[in-house]
Amino acid sequence: MEELVSLRGIVKRFPGVVANDNVDFSLRKGEIHALLGENGAGKTTLMNILYGLYRPDSGEIFIEGRRVKIESPRDAIKLGIGMVHQNFKLIPSHTVLENIILGLKEVGLIINYKAIGEKIKQLAESYGWRINPSAYVWQLTAGEKQQVELLKLLYRDAKILILDEPTSVLTPQECKILFQALRRMANEGKGVIFITHKLDEVFAISDRVTVMRRGKVVFLKETSKTNMSELAQYMVGRPVIFTIEKKEVQPSEEVMVIKNLKAFNDKGVLALKGVNLTVMKNEIVGIIGVTGNGQQELVEVISGLRKATEGSILIDGVNIVNNSPEKIIKLGVAFIPPEPLKYGIIPNLTIADNLFMKAYRYKPYSNGVLINWKTIYEKSEELVKAFQIVSPSLSAQARSLSGGNLQRLILARELSGLIGERIPRLIVAAYPTKGLDIGATEFVHKTLIEYSRRGSGILIVSEDVEEALMVCDRVAVMHDGKIVSVFKPGELDIEKIGLMMAGVEIAST
Amino acid sequence: MAKLLAIPYTVKIQKRTYITRKVSISITFLSLILAFLVVGLIFIFMGINPVDVYYHITMVFSSPTLLFESFKRAIPIGLAALGLSIAFRMNFWNIGAEGQMYMGMFASTGIVLLHLYYGLIPDYLVMFLMMLAAFITGGLWCSLPAFLKIKMKVNEILTTLMMNYVAMYFVDFLIYGPWRDPKGYGFPLSAPFPDYAKLVMLLGEFAYTGLLLLSLTAALVYVILKYTKLGFELKIVGESIDTARYAGINLSKVITLGGFLSGGVAGLGGLTIVSGIIGRLRPRASPGYGYTAIIVVLLSSLNPWLIIPVSIFFGGLFVAGDILQAALKIPGAAVEICQASIFLFIIVGEFIKRYRIMIVQKGGIE
Ligand SMILES: Nc1ncnc2c1ncn2[C@@H]1O[C@H](COP(=O)(O)OP(=O)(O)OP(=O)(O)O)[C@@H](O)[C@H]1O
Ligand SMILES: [Mg+2]
Prior knowledge:
The structure holds two protein chains of two kinds. By secondary structure, chain A is of the alpha/beta class. Chain A contains 17 helices and 22 strands. The longest helix of chain A has 17 residues, at 438-454. Chain A starts with a strand and ends in an 8-residue tail after the last helix. The mean pLDDT of chain A is 89. Chain B is mainly alpha-helical. Chain B folds into two domains: 19-48 and 330-366, no CATH class; 69-328, ABC transporter involved in vitamin B12 uptake, BtuC, CATH 1.10.3470. A two-stranded antiparallel ribbon of chain B has the order 1-2. In chain B, helix 1 runs antiparallel to helix 13 (332-354) and helix 12 packs antiparallel against helix 13. Classes of the chains: A alpha/beta, B mainly alpha. Strand 5 (66-69) of chain A pairs antiparallel with strand 3 of chain B. The structure holds adenosine-5'-triphosphate and magnesium ion. Magnesium ion is lined by residues 43-44, 86, 164, 402-403 of chain A.
């Protein structure tokens, strides 16, 4: 079979780590190649090299058998390479069409919107997508945004497609659509590199699988000739348990009661249309739904970042609607935000700074005026160990962390009970395992369950229905700014849940 | 598409992620050397021997009296720059140090004049009161734009810049009007300051109290930025307002307070002009120290300690300008052109430090 890409002996060093240590990788024509590995294994770095964002310290790149030098994404695009990044890079205030032609030289000065729009539409339809080229990106769901990212590559005639953790924000339905499209692309002779942490996806979609560990390739096989536990073994270096134990606890008192909550989104459209929900002590409540149905607005209102226009949120009986984040934090509300880079992390500051950007103002980390850096550094040392954050040092910039390690940093800050030296009263966690490898996901699930059993009330927002059913005590489906159904795991089957999420089925409960 | 003249190279500008100290210092020195070469060329065109010019400039930094004069000019520049380092830390683009200095001059002179007329407090307390007044007035002059920024999203670059002119003309008005010295033969000058209202020499010239004031303030700013809660908050606000809000930081408080400190320190700088350099208030008492401070603080990459030597260098350039006008009869405008070219080269150097300019071979098939 013809080789589209061949990377040979790629080495990339960053201060303190060898992110890629003599890596060989190949992609064939018509193949979907899964790239697996723990957080920080070097997957994104390798793909950034192929896409021209980083230059390798040594090694060679061959595209269709010819040796090439890729100095920039522009060169990569010219060679037919396209990449969808771990965090989407579309401009929300532009239309689909504008995003797709952005940066295209060939378009020229006079843009024929109609012809281009027609072409985009046809392209989308050929993959079974329904995309309106003149819709604004902010109006799209995560799945549709993904489609636009892919259309952008297809429009440029990319034949080598790199997708960095494309499914971490998709619902099962959206995943299915994506997989169908990817298969079609492969059948057309394109090659797809698919980075993921979810093993079932590897088996659902890929032809071959490469596993990276600590910068090296440790495994390469046809997918049909391997199995889950073998892959897990190579990724983590130990067997992984896929189910978790949940001790039964009787939820006793109400931690948070939300009544008739209404709020607008950034565009001034009513996004919460009267939300009612209760979270008890010792209980994990999951909110599932297609992104953009008000989940983000809901968690922002709870954490004080967004104003509500009506309704109330009682936390231990105190109404906190429209209070300052400072006050809400002090009540013991931990918040794992939906998009780490939007406000969860400051890339330019150190790991210690990021760990303590909330707790710095409380004892013993500061007194009246002065910050107690010694205590902060000692505690940071502990947290980095406990949450297994892989980093060169505490004073390294957060930007040098891999996607999954950034998420661990946020978890360490929010869950470790730095404020008031006690576990959080309420944990609001939006997509808490987004981008985490299987080991870390297992760790987060266990931690959340442990905290709930020790007395926290927990609200999880997730797109991963299976995760929600596995971890939560109760699950609420959110659609169009409302909670449309609340049930216990096991009460409803997956099909029905999917329909409710899509707004097709109206709940009977 | 026929590409007949395909050039295989392109120029790319890229933000640097990090830069070693050695490279950074080399770039600064290189841009300074280039600047002086270009200045030399300008003088050659004007028919002046550049060697004479260089000689006079090096004199400034070798003769004790002139060096001391440079120190004196360095104090207001350095204090203004220290103030700016606080504002810039929180991404508040205060370009109003000039105006905040004028407000500091106004306040300290006001105290002196009040004391001259009414004599309410013992003389040795006057200096202390002047400092307090200069700090508060300069601080308020800057916390207003800070407050407007956070409450009404008014762009601080515009407000701070415009308030420079308000402050400058306000001082003009006072000196041409009510504060003109009745014994001053009609010149637009305030009454001269008595000795207790001047920055004195404690132990010979090098223990000039101004230098002491500058060093102490630098130490204080360093401690505030590095070891206090406010310093940490300023840093987070400077990186991302959204994250600061998420972390529960009280934005109005931090930005207004940061603005107050920034303007306050610049206000102290104003005091050192009237009390240290001139000994009274006159219109246009600052030849643009507040603007020079912007370059100083960028050149020092917001580091309070670096600000001291860098301001002494710039103080020296101001003195050199005066000397060149007097000794070589070079017109003032020419001197300003030279100063501006030096500034320009430094700014280009700073740009190169932050961005990588690369001439790269176009990629593709080898
Ligand atoms: N710009 C950078 N500066 C310094 N170190 C970096 C940089 N980018 C990545 N690294 C380091 O290189 C290693 C590999 O990171 P990479 O992002 O490739 O991991 P990954 O396999 O994509 O992980 P994840 O699953 O968490 O996204 C990590 O240790 C990371 O800290
Ligand atoms: Mg990654």
